[in-house]
Design goal:
mainly alpha, 0% strand
């Protein structure tokens, strides 16, 4: 076999990896979203290839790739930085009802995305833990992979709680704004109710992550 034939597969794989990375990142609208994917780039690219091979759309595969990145590396939610971005847009218009409504809608949309990431993360990590516990039972010894998974969970829970703190601060800010209003807005009330529900959902999802962590000590 010629040397060129041996090299080509590796060259092709490298090119495919670069293309896949660019494809995944091109689906992100902000620098924060790109950073979130780059945290788990290796696992994300692998997941993206497998997904595309199954015939799914690029949008579906981006979501699956992100789930792979959540397990493959340090988790990067980017939620808190996005809230800061929306808060900066609000500067100078804090007491304007229309500006506040747009702000809280943006916050709620970011919260929905955060919860989607957390849901994927819980499901993916649960599967990883199942596999490692099974391997441990077969080998009768604790594997290095299990220890790595334990560290990942610890880091992910810490990062998730940081996002929860940002969500709580945004919720409290909107509550205070509502108190200052002399005229009631049903739309504002509804958005704050949604904001509270999303915050509660985030709490539950982080609790689920903690439960997964407790399974492996």
């Amino acid at each position: 076999m010629k040397m060129k034939e041996l090299i080509n597969p590796f060259v092709n794989l490298k090119v495919m990896t670069i293309v896949a990375s660019a494809t995944i990142l091109s689906g992100c609208e902000t620098l924060e979203q790109n950073a979130a994917l780059e945290c788990g780039a290796g696992a994300s690219v692998g997941s993206y290839f497998l997904c595309k091979a199954s015939g799914k759309s690029a949008k579906e595969c981006n979501k699956i790739a992100l789930a792979g990145g959540l397990v493959g590396g340090a988790v990067c939610y980017g939620y808190a930085s996005k809230l800061n971005k929306h808060k900066k847009v609000l500067e100078g218009k804090e007491d304007d009802l229309d500006a506040r409504l747009q702000y809280v809608k943006n916050v709620n949309e970011e919260s929905r995305k955060l919860n989607e990431k957390l849901e994927m993360q819980v499901a993916t990590l649960s599967q990883e833990i199942d596999k490692e516990i099974f391997k441990q039972e077969q080998q009768k010894t604790e594997s290095a992979e299990l220890d790595n998974l334990r560290n990942k969970l610890k880091n992910n829970i810490e990062k998730a709680n940081e996002q929860l703190d940002a969500s709580k601060a945004a919720l409290e800010d909107m509550r205070q704004f509502k108190v200052r209003q002399t005229k009631r807005s049903e739309e504002l009330d509804a958005q704050i109710v949604t904001q509270q529900k999303l915050y509660n959902d985030t709490q539950k999802l982080i609790a689920n992550l903690t439960q997964q962590s407790q399974r492996i000590g």
